[in-house]
Design a protein that fits this description.
- The structure holds three protein chains of three kinds.
- Helix content of chain A is about 30%, strand content about 25%.
- Chain A is α+β, with helices and mostly antiparallel strands.
- In chain A, helix 19 links the parallel strand 28 and strand 29.
- The longest helix of chain A has 28 residues.
- The termini of chain A are far apart.
- In chain B, a hairpin with a 2-residue loop joins strand 1 and strand 2.
- The longest helix of chain B is centred in the last third of the chain and has 23 residues.
- Chain C contains eleven helices and 13 strands.
- The longest helix of chain C is centred in the last third of the chain and has 27 residues.
- Chain C is globular.
- The termini of chain C are far apart.
- At the A-C interface, helix 21 of A face helix 11 of C.
């Protein structure tokens, strides 16, 4: 068989998705209309922590248009809780890592207690949403207020109230990673810097709020669920399990999804409840959250506090790192220890650090549940490490860029074994890359280090504060366990591909069409892609953790390789020649060197059919469809260096980003323009986290944000001039050489801006240990320089 | 509360006579009663801009109006503006410049862009950023959106100056 | 609908009724289900309330005039430049399409720009009820948090603003977290310079407490002095000391105080420079 010619992989072809989205013809969950459809509103707790004494729905039931109102008690016997840890660590991780994990399940509607402001205590089903909300207001909940567990310290207090009464404490998970000997490094006389760092609580805040619609067909006892989700197969699994239906009779589809970023990356109680209601009420049911509900009830992210210590020698070589951190997981933690275990696996970054210890405590509190959001634990660790690097540089009077270069793993040491396990339990090995090259390229893009420092000094002479901030990170991507692909040749010769990935704006249909087009020598418009649909492929995992470019593409390739063998064997039979003499080009199989001798894929599809008059050689089974599963050996390692020039506004204390640069390597890029879009979108979110976004709770446990005017996300005015340069170090771990990249852009910006501001305010010895950055603190730092 | 009012309005060039409850939001009326689901609802507070439509030719948050207020009005939504070709160039430029990913903000973003360029036909770079701050996007990081609107504004400027100069050059140029 | 019909409805429904002007503040509150009203009196139908007229030394603007109209009005730009400048900072264009001057003033959000503008210009608000009309000077109009002098049976129908005089300069600026957001603090300045001295100074601020206010103490510093940097600096410090801002999610009291100082210094100097230009 000849090598596949790459015509479309690597090209920034236009997106298949654009036409319908640009004309308002997309279909999001909120757009779904089914005959007889009912609408849902939830009654939500306004208390952070309370025992439910009673819920009186009688007045509400009398409201116009109400069809049903159910509480946790009403469904207790019918709907079991959602499992507390949907993404369990595999056996290899459990064997490699010292851990204790006891994550509570989440009831579909609050039972006995409410544990966060916004938790659903009753569901109202009515003819329309207006009427449902009217009725929801009439539901009377008698709550006995309990002292709320308001944060990490409160959770860990000696006699703290317990968020979950059946647990011994508010600690739901503990684990530790260790390599080398941190104490020995200290004893050998290394210098150290120790500090506490805090990563604040974030929201993913996609423009589309979550929603679920469900339709039960009594005639066939089957259920269809449309959910704005990133994980249709997880949703299908849970709906089938809870409703006692075989998966074969449950279909989950994610229609157009308006951004996910992780907040739509797990099963929510509503996914199951709406399906249950559709069956119980024998009418289709739809629920779409409004923005306030999204803020209160869709998962929050990050929110951890680190006690970190770094040990180094006088040449600036990092000898050891220790980080004990606590994560505030809110009342439930649907993805368990996913994010904090990422933090541990990513803390060491692109650096050689021989001794390392990380210990994690995950606590529950009376805040909204916490689940992964773009970066999922990596930004948290990168903030700690990259701030520490700048602190070490300051201590040694070294340029922070130079310090990093001294510690970066050089290209000739790749693949580099780090010595700690990844989430999959496999020891971390950085597969390929050139970290120093990325650093040099980033600094060059800003004009070179000398120019930057000269301009900085000149600015300072003028009384202006300009700083350089740098953030380097590695990113494990393309995680398993698997993704499958079905590849089928249609009778007309076009290609059908189905895979378990779920798009939320990435342009997956375009990307996978490019992969398939090259595999089959056709143009992408001849490829039909099915994603986001359990009916397309029975086994799937979904799009989280920057995994689909690697996993789905590799699965498509794998299935295509197998199917091509069959295609060639049938083609050889039709043209009476040996398979080794054949090549695939332009949708046809040719005899090499004889342009007139070819058969089209549609001819081959016809010949492959089962039954009479087929054209298959003996021993070749019927049909032209193959399903293969790509099970990655472990993650691939993307990486990047972000750098920014920031000037402090002397009047307002606002950090003004003059230039932002990303040098990014995620291996072979299937569609460079789409890849760049992911990086830019991630950078924008990261900058939001640095300067604007913050979930705030009051001391009484009440959440203090309720709208997009409270939780500020970047606008077009907030995005600085940004350059993205790509390096392409192919991954040796998959044939395509791709690595993942969906999350990367969001990982570094908070620490880059923090480092830049601290660099600008170096004369004031201003250091940042938490996010978001605060203008008033910056002003005070500048004040300190003006005092006589 | 259950009282209904008759309204009569033009949406995307078509006349409608409907009965609506006074509290029905215009955004819900367009989406549910008329089935024009291209206009999206992201917040219901007027902040995200996804619901922006043209009300008597001007960009307006449909989530902050009641359907009864649209009696006698002329409304254009993304569907109509697409069909009529009013947005074609912006749509092409959005695709060219990668100004969309998930597409949820896109209809509102296009209407905001169109409205902004009507209001400010020769904007500076700063003005474009400010003008496009009227709609939120969480996916793209805005660079593509700003580039698309920048190119559209340049084309408008050339078309305008060609018209002022007396026309033929403008007709030859592809807009 | 006629204004008289609107007034009838208000009188008839009393506390059950709420005026709907632009709706850009009211409807979000209703969508949160925080605002509940039996009857909304929709002034958008009262065409007689939308106009911009120059009469003598005043610009008279109907309360239902859209912010967008004010923004593009040559008359406003030439005659009341302070209003034009502030309007560009009000939210975003699609909000200004519906938002009205009367609605903004009646709602009296402490962070809103228009109250600061009418205070600095010493405008007059014309209120109408079935009983008749009354004219309330701006200084008596803003009473407290979201509270104005408008009585339950009254409608604000017109805003009267003095047109710019020779030798008068204006400036408006605000600090916010993002472009188009509510101001953390905003400052409006109307300065008259004559004979090398500041002969008139009116400064007002929004975002500094429960209501927009005149910065009387700071004005006192400026009157009679040269328009020099140290003078504006002194006025700025006095202004900052004279306010009692509140802390919220977006800025604490101390930060707001500092921004008052920063803005007063910059806005007053700009207005004075404009006054000097104007006087030439």
């Amino acid at each position: 068989m000849s090598a596949i010619v790459q015509k479309f992989v690597g090209q920034s072809i236009a997106r298949k998705e654009d036409a319908r989205l640009l004309s308002g013809s997309g279909q999001f969950v909120a757009d779904i209309k089914l005959p007889g459809m009912l609408h849902v509103a939830f009654v939500r707790s306004s208390a952070a922590h309370a025992r439910i004494r009673s819920i009186d729905t009688s007045r509400a039931l009398a409201c116009p248009g109400v069809v049903a109102i159910l509480t946790g008690e009403d469904i207790r016997a019918h709907l079991k809780p959602i499992p507390g840890m949907q993404n369990k660590p595999p056996r290899k991780w459990r064997e490699a890592v010292e851990h204790e994990i006891g994550i509570p399940d989440q009831p579909v509607l609050a039972l006995d207690k409410v544990r966060y402001v916004g938790e659903a205590i009753a569901v109202v089903v009515a003819e329309n949403r207006y009427l449902a909300e009217d009725a929801a207001e009439q539901v009377e909940a008698d709550l006995e207020l309990l002292a709320p567990v308001t944060g990490i310290d409160a959770a860990l207090e000696e006699n703290a109230p317990r968020v979950h009464d059946h647990l011994k404490s508010n600690v739901v998970a503990k684990f530790r990673f260790r390599k080398g000997d941190f104490e020995a490094a200290l004893a050998a006389g290394a210098r150290t810097i120790k500090h506490q760092f805090y990563n604040h609580r974030y929201l993913a805040m996609p423009m589309e709020c979550r929603g679920v619609a469900a339709q039960y067909d009594a005639r066939s006892d089957s259920m269809t669920v449309w959910s704005a989700t990133q994980v249709v197969h997880w949703v299908r699994r849970e709906v089938a399990a809870r409703l006692g239906l075989p998966e074969a009779r449950v279909r989950c589809v994610a229609p157009d999804v308006g951004g996910g970023f992780g907040v739509k990356g797990h099963v929510y109680p509503e996914d199951v409840l709406i399906a249950y209601l559709a069956r119980r009420l024998e009418r289709p049911v739809k629920w779409v959250e409004d923005r306030l509900e999204h803020i209160l009830n869709s998962t929050h992210a990050r929110d951890d506090r680190h006690d970190a210590e770094i040990a180094f020698d006088s040449d600036g070589r990092i000898l050891a790192l220790r980080d004990h951190f606590v994560k505030d997981s809110g009342a439930y933690t649907p993805v368990g220890i996913g994010a904090p275990s990422n933090t541990c696996a990513h803390l060491l970054g692109p650096y050689h650090v021989p001794n390392y210890e990380a210990a994690v405590t995950v606590v529950v509190t009376n805040k909204t549940p916490n689940a992964p959001y773009r970066g999922s634990g990596r930004p948290e660790g990168v903030f700690v490490m990259e701030r520490l690097m700048d602190l070490v540089a300051r201590e040694l009077d070294l340029d922070p860029v130079e310090l990093r270069l001294r510690n970066m793993i050089p290209a000739d040491k790749m693949p580099y074994s780090v010595g700690i396990p990844y989430r999959d339990g496999i020891p971390v090995v950085y597969d390929s890359g050139d970290y120093p090259a990325a650093m040099h390229k980033a600094i060059d893009a800003l004009g070179g280090l000398k120019k930057v420092r000269d301009e900085q000094s000149e600015a300072l002479r003028q009384g202006r504060f300009v700083g350089l901030g740098v953030g380097a990170y590695v990113e494990g991507t393309g995680a398993g366990p698997f993704e499958g692909a079905t590849v089928r040749i249609d009778p007309c010769g076009s290609i059908f591909v189905a895979t378990g990935a779920c798009d939320q704006g990435q342009g997956q249909k375009t990307v996978f069409a490019q992969i398939a087009a090259d595999e089959w020598g056709v143009t992408p418009d001849k490829v039909t892609v099915s994603i986001s649909d359990t009916a397309g492929i029975a086994l799937g995992y979904g799009t989280i953790a920057s995994r689909s470019a690697v996993n789905s593409s590799s699965a498509i390739r794998q299935a295509s390789v197998v199917l091509r063998k069959k295609v060639f064997s049938i083609a050889g039979n039709l043209m009476e020649c040996a398979e080794k003499d054949l090549e695939l080009r332009d949708g046809k199989v040719f005899v090499k060197g004889i342009p007139k001798m070819s058969v089209s894929l549609s001819d081959i599809a016809a010949a492959a059919r089962p039954g009479w008059d087929h054209g298959r050689p003996a021993g070749v089974s019927a049909g032209l469809e193959v399903t293969e599963y790509y099970e990655p050996p472990t993650v691939t390692w993307s990486y990047a260096v972000h750098a920014a020039i920031v000037e402090i506004d002397l009047e307002t204390g606002a950090p003004v980003i003059r230039q932002y640069v990303v040098v990014h390597d995620s291996g072979i890029l299937i569609n460079p323009a789409l890849a760049e879009g992911q990086v830019l979108g991630g950078v924008c979110q990261g900058l939001g986290g640095a300067l604007l976004e913050e979930v705030v709770y009051g001391e009484d446990g009440q959440i203090l944000i309720g709208s997009l005017m409270d939780y500020l996300i970047p606008t077009a005015s907030d995005m600085p001039p940004t350059q993205v340069a790509h390096l392409e170090s192919p991954s040796p771990l998959n044939e395509l050489g791709v690595k993942g990249l969906g999350e990367g852009g969001a990982i570094a910006p908070p620490v880059v801006i923090a480092n830049a501001v601290c660099d600008a305010l170096r004369p004031a010895r201003f250091e940042v240990f938490s996010t978001p950055l605060r203008r008033s603190e910056i002003l005070r730092a500048m004040d300190s320089l003006r005092k006589p | 509360m259950t009282e209904v009012r008759k309204i009569s309005l033009t949406v995307n060039g078509e006349r409608y006579e409907c009965e609506v409850e006074p509290r029905l939001l215009l955004s819900d009326f367009l989406r549910e009663n008329l089935g024009l689901t291209g206009t999206h609802v992201g917040c219901e507070h007027g902040i995200c801009g996804a619901c922006t439509i043209l009300f008597n030719g001007q960009g307006t948050r449909s989530c902050l109006m009641f359907a009864v207020q649209a009696d006698g009005a002329r409304i254009d939504t993304i569907e109509g503006l697409s069909k009529s070709g009013v947005l074609s160039r912006l749509q092409e430029l959005f695709s060219k410049h990668r100004a969309l990913q998930c597409g949820f903000c896109t209809p509102g973003m296009l209407v905001v862009a169109h409205d902004f360029l009507q209001h400010c036909p020769s904007p500076s770079d700063e003005e474009i950023r400010q003008g496009m701050s009227a709609a939120l996007c969480r996916c793209t990081g805005y660079r593509g959106i700003v580039s698309a609107v920048t190119e559209a504004s340049r084309e408008l400027r050339h078309a305008g100056s060609d018209e002022a100069a007396g026309g033929d050059a403008g007709k030859a140029r592809r807009i | 609908m006629l204004l008289s019909e609107a007034l009838e409805l208000l009188a008839e429904h009393g506390s059950e009724a709420k005026i709907l002007a632009g709706g850009q503040s009211l409807v979000p509150a209703m969508n949160f289900r925080l605002g509940r009203f039996g009857v909304l009196v929709d002034l958008n139908r009262v065409e007689e309330l939308a106009y911009i007229r120059h009469e003598g030394s005043e610009l008279r603007i109907g309360a239902m005039t859209r912010q967008r109209e004010i923004e593009v009005s040559a008359l406003v730009r030439e005659r009341v430049p302070l209003l034009a400048a502030a309007t560009r900072m009000v939210a975003h264009l699609p909000i200004r399409t519906r938002g009205t001057i009367g609605g903004s003033l009646s709602h009296a959000d402490p962070a809103a720009e228009y109250p600061a503008v009418v205070l600095a210009l010493e405008g007059v608000l014309v209120l109408q009820s079935r009983k008749g009309m009354r004219r309330v000077p701006a200084r008596d109009f803003f009473l407290g948090l979201f509270t104005t002098a408008v009585q339950p049976d009254e409608i604000l129908v017109e805003v009267q603003l003095p047109v710019a005089e020779r030798g008068q300069g204006f400036a408006f600026d605000e600090v916010s977290r993002r472009q188009g957001d509510f101001a953390i603090v905003g400052v409006a300045a109307a300065i008259t310079v004559g004979g090398g001295r500041i002969s008139g100074a009116r400064l007002s601020a929004c975002g500094v407490g429960e209501v927009a206010l005149r910065l009387n103490a700071a004005e006192g510093v400026l009157i009679g002095r040269e328009p020099a940097p140290d003078v504006f600096q002194e006025a700025a410090s006095v202004a900052a000391a004279s306010v009692e801002p509140r802390s919220d999610l977006h800025a604490d009291a101390e930060y707001r105080r500092r921004m008052v100082a920063s803005l007063v210094r910059r806005v007053a100097s700009r207005a004075a420079r404009a006054a000097v230009e104007e006087g030439r």
